[in-house]
Sequence to fold (1230 residues):
Amino acid sequence: MKFNKLKRTIKISDNEETTQSKSSDSNESSQAELFVNHPEADKTIEKIKNHTGRINDLIFKKIPTDEGIVTVIYTRSLVEKMALQVMIFVPLANHINQIHQVSEKLETTNFPEILNRLISGQTLLYFHHTNMLLCIDTYSAPTRSITNTETESTVIGPQDAFTESLETNISLVKRRIQNPSLKNEARTIGTETNTKISILFIEGIVNKDNLDKINQRIDKLHYPAFSDISILKQLIEDNPLSPFPQYYMTVRPDSVTNYLLDGRIAIFMDNSQAAIVCPTTFLEMFISVEDYYNRWTTASLLRMLRFFGFFLTIMITPMYVSALTFHPEILPYELLLNLQESRSKVPFPPLIEVLFLELIIEVLREAGSRMPAKVGQTIGIVGGIVIGTAAVEAGLISNILVVLVATSALLSFLPPIFLMSNTSRFVRYIFILSAGLFGLYGQMLAFAWLISHLLNLNSLGTPFMSPVIPRKAADLMDSIIRFPIAFLKGKKGISNSKKK
Amino acid sequence: MSTNNRKILNGYHVIFLTQSTMIGTGILSLPQRLSSLGYSQAFVPLLFGVIASISLLPMIWISSQYKNDNLFTINEKLLGKPFGKSVNLFIVVHFTLFLAGIISNYMHLIQTTALSEQSSTIPVFFLLLLLIYIVSGGIKSIARFCTITFFLTIPMLYFLRWAIEKGELSHLLPLFNFNGSQFLDALKKGYISVLGYELIMFYFPYIINQKKALKHSLIGLWISIILCFITTLVSVIYYSEWQLKNIEYSVLHLFKAGEFTFIERIDIIGITFWIFLILSSAATYLWSAKKGIDSLRAKKKNYHTYLITLAIFLFVVIPYSREYQDKLFKLSYQISYIMLAWPLLLAVVHSLKKKQVKQ
Amino acid sequence: MNRNLILFFASILIMSILVGCTDKELKVPLEDVGMVGIMAFDYIDENSFKLTVSIPQFSPEAKERAQIFSVTTDLISKGIVEIETLSDKKVVLNQLRVVLINEEFARKGNIQKAIHHLYRNADVGNKVLLAIVKENGEEMLKAEYPDKPNVNIYLNDLLQPSINTAFNPNTNIHDYMYTETNPVFDTIVPLLEKKEGKIEMDGIALFKEKHMLKELPEEEALIIQALLGRKKLAPLYLELNQAEQKEELMMDLINSKVSIKGNKNMESPKVSISLHIEGTLVEYRGGREKELVNIKGITKLEHDINKQIEKDIKEFLEKLSELKVDPIGLSENFRMYYKGKWNNKLKEEVISNLQVDVQVDTSIISTGTLK
Fold:
């Protein structure tokens, strides 16, 4: 019995789809004896059609039901057929009450609202008999399934990563924190794109000031389009001009969970994979969530490596420049003789030599990231080995420099946050230039700039360098050295509200 | 950071502001300045510490009478506008000269060690640019810079290891082998090295916990004094008396004593790293001088900083005779001693005024 | 704050432009710099000397591993400038490692002024080693050492501290300046002699005031090092000349400890020295071989060694006392308690009247693995 009816509706809908552009008087007449159309009915439908204009994937479908003719209106590209079947057509044909239970009533004359509903993937049901417009959320745009992350993969720990769907992402977090205090405030930003974002926080743990601040900043936004959350991030950062990212960005739900539990705020955006976590600190740019899964000894070692790796990567090649141009006396004798020998054929001054090789590495990296994986590998080998050795043999660069540049390039990929490794690359050029200008003095000058710049930075009003100058002594337990888990109780100082 | 009149400095900030302002170029040549005492100079910094602690008392007292005013405003309030302003102008000029002294001293050192073949004009320019950048962040960001400077530079003590290994402790004896005039000479020349704590009169209004300010600044002061003490101590055990007298930058030569297998000359790294100490003390002076102009013109403008910096730049770079330059800087050093006694005078004026009001 | 960032980016821009400009005119890249490794001074007459420098040659094509230039000059920097006209490179002193001074220069020339010059020069490190050369420094640099790749590295390695040449005081520029300007010390510098195809360290040169006074043999130099408190001493060779027979033995010293105490009395100065040495008996030749298997025998040997060393030290200190020199700094023990300014005259007074009380305590930890 049910099956039959289902079949019937499917049949009807098939018919309708092909003939929807024509006016369907024949259908109307067959049901006419039961229900009389409301006098406004045709006009309303006509008006909606006029307002939607040239949106071609908007579907109008007239269906005879137990309550007379119903026109189903939806956007084909945002609603999956299956969802439509289950949520609309089957109930329409069988239990029309269900529709009334789950739907929301809309004004038939409020056209902007109607349009908004339609373009956000909701399905409208217009009852010709009662001149009533109902609306059901059937938004079911195609999404990809949850896969593991490529940018932040870890060996230990959960492997799932966020996808581009806001709901999936929120669900990934909510299933980890099953607590009613976990709130998500939905908002819409982007004057043109109407992008949905969601602000997640745990009530009672989060700092209210921070929450107000982030809301204020989002309120002030006037930006047409958000194609990724990183755009939002750059717009609401404290210092947009700085080369340093001031908010944490991650695609790992476990990482977001950790930060939420520490009282941070996470922002998700529909259609973008990553989530913003704020406020954050400089040190956290070097913390991978895997540190908490590893033994504390290993984790501490890795953290130290990453943290000092950052300073090494911006110091190694500038050091080469300043040692060779300004202070040959700081190098040991034997090494210096080697350097002299390997540089004897090089036609450039050390500064140009370093810039040259650094640029080659950048080119390799950039080319490698654009190329398909299989070609990329070959290019990597060609670039790395062939160019490297050939350039040394041709006497364009010294072999010691190749080692240094390669090391510093590798070191620059240590931070788990990709934006940070980009930053380190940029900052390195400042250091190279200043080393070329004043040697070690220039390097220290640049270092002092770096430190004072970092000290000037804020992340959502809290100092970016927080754990280095700790707000709370206990923060040091989870800084460069990660103490055993039992020591890591309580929130970090950065998450607390300011002392008054 | 915000520069408006809010209480923003916590205890740590006060400690490290006091500490870092005291350690600049002075400590580099402290052993040489004290050399009239010969080997007996080792414990003199501790004595300086006592003197400094005592002279800190009236500063804190007068500042805590006017909780929201820095010395410039106090001057105006107590001495009347015209006289107060002229005193303030004097202080600003003094600070500018003093800063120029610090920077020219350091650049001189850099030029002899690290940048031997370059004129120092452009390096000075960049140093001042960075100084402006740090100062523009306001006193809190200076305080943070001071804090981090302390932790970054304190590992340099390790560089003294080799000098300590080679040195002979017997140099410390006999303990007080000097006469009064030698001591006075050393006091006059050497006390400059521990100056800088008097700046608390300028950032005092920004301190959150003003009641504990004395304690905090004393902690900072004694950290610096102990660092000075370590410097003179190691110098004494490492050098002969002739060397103490004739080596201008004895810290430089202490660093020269060491080497790693991969770095042969630690002195160059140490001296270039010293820029942090220079910046942290110069930034506080510059900030105070800027406040001075602010109060003179009764306006807060960023270009006041640039103005002072330009003056410093000209002082350092313009090639008038070095002799004259040195004289000028020496003069400003001597004015510093007046600065130490100044709060006493203010305190007297203050109590007199109070009596007047009561009558 | 934003304005400042713009300021900073602007300065980066200026910086890059400046880099482009300054590079040409000022900086000589590393490969065009000739870094002097060794400097030698040879005496000509009172006012002038012969300055020889050795610059390592890195190019694999060059036949000689070092370039050696000699000029006659009266000022060091003038000499360096003259050398620059001979060399294809810019001559710098950044990597100076060894300074050689020939004996004649050390005895007659103004060695103090030369070292002062280097000490003042900020380019030159303080760890430049000094050595006195018998005869001629230039010849030593120019000689062939067939089994050594480079005279620069050879000499530097030779003068570095090593366990078998523990008598070597490893005098560097700072040590020279320190002992030269310190009124309780007299300078000692290792002495080198060129042999066929090699260089030998042959005792030390003892200075008095500004000039070299005397040459001391290795054994005496070793005593100086022992009394200066050096922990690791060279293998000690001893001849025990007891009444009945001659004994020879070799000890590997593991540890030595010295404590020197003065009696604080300037009128009749007296120091008591107690030296404790620990070591293993490596080799022994003499009549007592059979007795050394038990502790009693060894104790007796220790006792004899003590006596011998005590005698050696005493003889040596008497010699110093006659010469009125003090390379060990024994007079420091009196300066420590002397109010007022100490000077060379006081030192000489102390040293010439010095009475010495030496106590040596040897302990032989083992006699090797052989019974």
About this structure: The first strand of chain A starts at residue 58 and ends at 65.
